[in-house]
Amino acid sequence: MIYVDGRVFGEHHVLAAEGVDANGEKHVLGIAPGSSENHHVAKDLLQSLIERGLDPERPRLFVIYGSKALRKAILELFGPDKPVQRCRAHKLRNVVERLPKEERDQTKNAMRVAWRLDEKEGKQKLQTLASWLEHQDHPDAAASLREGMDEMFTVNRQGLPSALRRCLATTNIIENPNGGVRRRTGRVSRCRDSSMILRWTAASLLECETGFRKIMGYKDLWLLKAKLDELAQERAAKRSAEKTLAPAGKAA
User: What burial class does residue 3 get, using C-beta atoms within 10 Å of its C-beta: 0-12 exposed, 13-18 middle, 19+ buried?
Assistant: First the structure.
């Protein structure tokens, strides 16, 4: 899996990628200066991972927050076959920050319950919640809830145990080391430019990496790998069939 998330340190933006191997070990893969909302920044970071040996053809799961620029970069470099899970923690914040305080807890609880259900039932619950938010005169919150809903349930449709599913549903594992970076860079009173904050961020992340623990539910990662391999085989067979049928279709 590859987790990608952005962080702001003062006036500087840094985009970071972290990987999880088959044994559940976490690894810092790369960082780039700039916002995750910038398509060129996102694409440059992912391209650098490929240039350093990341196989774009290998089945893998991406866990990202809702950056359209980042999503586009994944599509361009890794193709449409790679499943993407949108971070639920970011979605939760994006929705509730558009609501009055008295309605936030109820909405958060309803969203969390829906995410624990199977995909079909969970989506129905969220659509019902979105309609209720519109009725309560919160159209922005309803629109935020509906946006990217399919990719909020990517891990649900993989048939994974709940502990592993919770870990794969957010970018929290990359946000935690980001907290360590902030503590270490907090002593820096003045950054001359983005390259300086990038060096501090890289050094801090590598220091944090020495204390990384395996992800929750790592013993069940073989189930995810089997599912990703199955999806890759199905899509490869579909593409092969489409190529075989293409000449006949043109002739007709």
Answer: buried
Q: In this predicted model, what pLDDT tens digit does every residue of 178-187 receive, in sequence order?
A: 555 656 555 5
Give the neighbor-by-neighbor strand order of the sheet with 84-86.
26-33, 12-20, 2-9, 62-64, 84-86
Q: Residue 245 has what pLDDT?
A: 76
DSSP 210: T
Return the pLDDT at 252. Answer: 43
Cα–Cα–Cα angle for 94, 99, 100, rounded to 5 degrees? 145
In a 3-state reduction of DSSP, which class is residue 251?
A: helix
Long-range own/partner contacts, residues 218-223 (CB < 8 A, 24 or more apart): 218/23, 218/24, 218/164, 219/24, 220/160, 220/161, 220/163, 220/164, 221/20, 221/22, 221/23, 221/24, 221/164, 222/22, 223/158, 223/159, 223/160, 223/161, 223/164
> What are the structural domain ranges in the chain?
2-83+154-251, 88-151
CATH T-level topology, domain 2-83+154-251: Nucleotidyltransferase; domain 5 (3.30.420)
pLDDT at 158: 87
* Residue 73: partners with Cβ closer than 8 Å, 6 or more residues away: 39, 42, 43, 45, 46
What pLDDT does 20 receive? 93
Contact 174, 5 (CB under 8 A): yes
Sequence-distant (≥ 6) Cβ neighbours of residue 193 within 8 angstroms: none
pTM, to two decimals: 0.85
* pLDDT score, position 126: 97
User: What was the pLDDT predicted at 201?
Assistant: 76
Q: Percent helix, strand and coil across the chain, each rounded to 5? A: 60, 10, 30
| Residue segments in the chain with a per-residue pLDDT below the cut of 70 | 9-10, 175-194, 246-252
